[in-house]
Amino acid sequence: MPRRKIDLSTSGEGTVVDMKTGKPVAKPVLPVICERIHHYRSLAGVEQKALADLVGVTANSVSNWENGRSRPDVNLLPGICRALHITLYDLFGLEDPTAKYTARQLQLADDFIGLAEGHRRAVENLVDTLKNMEAAENCPELTVLTYFSRRLAAGFGDPSDFEDEGEKVYVYASPDVNRADCIFTVNGNSMEPDFRSGQDVLVQRIPGGPDLRYGEIGAFIVGNETYIKEYQEDGLHSLNPAYDTMRFDDSASVYLIGRVLGILDKASYATPEDISRYCLHDGRAERS
Prior knowledge:
alpha+beta; 2 domains; 8-stranded mixed β-sheet; 9 helices; disordered N terminus; disordered C terminus
């Protein structure tokens, strides 16, 4: 084993130097508890002997702790903390989970524990009610629409049947969403590049509202098929030039479902958490 010498040429603690290499040897790392006993004792201005007296050990024991030669018995730890006015979290260098609470909050927790069982239940019910109220008040604004998961073409002979089909869905509010009544999915490529197969579109029902104008995009029922087309004076146009214009005579069964307002991004569908919060708020989700 290489021989070492102690260099005492400078003030303060000596430096351990390796006799063979002449280089300083790194000091051993003290256990956290030993280092922190020394730190908090010095911070409190308490001598080793005074701490030893308060804890019930010898001054030599305290010296051994602080130099890492030994560690205090676990039974002595509460007494060390009391003597240095610190917590066990401080002594072991751990984060105190109660540090985020104010003294008043901790006092309220103690008061709650001291209540009779019936009174604790009353407080719990009150807290639950207040939490639900806050969750509802802070929840994002949602709109309830009707989503058609299958092709709308199947079996519609009269547009009055359209309103009673589909599934209710919750969508984050926006100007277009708030104007819409229903959602359905584009099938095929006749309306590319503006509308692609698989995209969801928002539709505003026309009955009771203004008629569709030339140049607007609408959802139509033609016979037993449903289409998204551009409405023009001479018929229903596709945006994809590969498709011919759909023209009809007076005997054709053509019904207007509504005006297509635009594409609905998949991220616009509300998460289950937001839906749950929304439904707590006094029945707002019953909007139709």
